[in-house]
Fold each of these.
Amino acid sequence: MADYKFNRTVRLDYHEVLAWQTEMYVAVGMSPTDANTSAHHLVIADARGVYSHGIMRTPTYIEKMRLGGLNPTARPEIIRGKGPTIVVDGHNAMGQVAASFGTEKAIELAREFGSSTVSITGSNHLGTCAYYTEQAAAADMVGFCWTINANNIMAPWGGIDARLGNNPFGISAPCLTRPPVTLDMATSVVARGKIAMAMKTGTQIPSNWALDKFGNPTTDPEAAFHGTVQPSGEYKGYGLTFMNAIVSAILNGSAFGEDVGDFFENPTQVQNTGHLLQFIDISAIDDVTAFKQRMDNAVTYLKAANRREGVDEIFVPGEMEARSFARQTEQGIDYPLEVIQELAQLGTTLGVSTRPEWTAEVAVR
């Protein structure tokens, strides 16, 4: 979970934000169903504390729709298949729409065959991988998701030219009495969205997050945004980044290398982003309840380890996000005021109203 520290925040009700964002996407031509799918994904990311992939991205998505870089009415379809393996063409739909379509098919195929592979091309930025893999976990499956990033932001190890994305991946497995164990990570030290959030809120970043365009470490988010992100684990992260690109993009002919446009800087360019989903039906291997009990036992075992000085609790992947989600869906989501003010202005241009107290100075917490 990102450790965001916002200078000024406003707390908004989960359901109200979801309805507000859905209305915005409908205003630019999306069907109510697709608009809700997209908004739901973004608001859940915020509730989980992953603000870099939440509603702060709405202005960029909508700009791409309005300028032709993304088709708000596109319908994903299966274009090829063999047994439990299919290829989906998103036809330049919203990434959340294409990936949600693929997730539905991956669950259906895994139930029939025991496992499934869904390769998606013609898509866009899909948001968080956890959104899709946790749907697999909810269906008593282990879910994997790989994606190529929607812009090149990482240099090959030893280089300074941005020739790779930070190509995230996610894995989820269900537990019996605990939240699913979910690893959702970019192959860089941090996602570029966190750098973008730092730019919006005017805060410095740690020096190990990124390099400027000359290959020097920087704490300036703007210099980092126009430079390259650092791979996690140095050359190991670089290697993982390339392998993720192979399975998510090179495999199905999606954009790679020079064909990848900048998601933020080129709103008119069609991205042709690629993803790969692989789901395993637990019941094809063992009793589901027995597996979930073993997962509970494994989590308990790890959390019971002796802790280093100053460590209050040991967490497993996805646990902090699950706690944030439970808290913020009940109490309201804390947003940086700058993000809500920007979205309110966008809503005005779209004819979508915003509650006045959301952006008023008295709402600052």
Amino acid sequence: MQVQTSGSVVTGDDLPGQLTALRQLHPELYACIDPQRIAAWRATLGRTLEQHDDFGDDADGGRGVVYLKAQALNTRARATGIRTLLGLAAPHGPAPDGRQPVLVDLLGGDGLVRKVCDELGLDDFGILTCDASPHMVAAAWAAGMPALLQRAEQPLLRDGSVDAVLLAYGSHHVPPSDRQTVASEAYRMLRPGGAFVLHDFAVGSPMDVWFEEVTDVYSTTGHKFLHFTRDEIDGYLEKSGFEHREVLEIDDPYTVVGATPEEAELAIGRYLLHMYGLVKVFDGRAEQEAYRWVAERAKSVFRYTGKDGSVTETELRREDATGHWHLTVPRRAIIGVGRRAAGH
């Protein structure tokens, strides 16, 4: 995949082209990049690109095509969680020089977080989308999102150059052996007062069950990754040197809208099937039957029991103003927030 941007062709594996486009179109983001780190990254880039890419093209054994289809179907499916994450990352007070704060989205994929911000009118940050998948980086540029090919554990930005670092929606793909490095690198990149927000789903949570019993079984890539624990997240933040840190839980649901209850049910099934590349669900099932199967499986997996015995489960409600039906599948994520002290 490639995209023409102001005279430059930007592809997912063309790092020099990405840097040129950033310099021309987004100089405020380009200013954060460290030339010495670029040189070190180029030395290992060839070997990195040879590694299997779960979010690559179908022809390369990835599920990137259907993943992008899911985002196109419903950009705002995860908007509630994204809005909360950005609120946690927000700087305490305006930037001293009046500039727009910069957030680096380490696992940015095709730029979903920035797209959601644009659609919702959230302009707290200028966002640089980063990803290790050339397919995702190319898709981001094709959608007009400034992006950079890099690995979360080997970021290419200067010391103290950004106001927030986000590691979300795929953090469990980072090998446990690299997780402390990612957190420490986030601390290095942050300006005083900046925040590192680490998002994942706890070991043993419904999301963990979904990945093990559904994604791993019905996708072509499988899904054998270790999720985080609260203590693990807190340990990474502490060892990285964050002067202020906390680990909390947030609501991060999937939401779809349909003209009828059945249309909403099919919409969530379609979204989740493509989101997680569950193409094996089609084996022996017609298209709509497959979507219904995924929707029913999601309703059975995503259930949360409170300390008082109350149960939070999938909710279908009609919005009086529009007559549309909103279907919400509950998810709860664990979030680590580390913030550098002002002046350090």
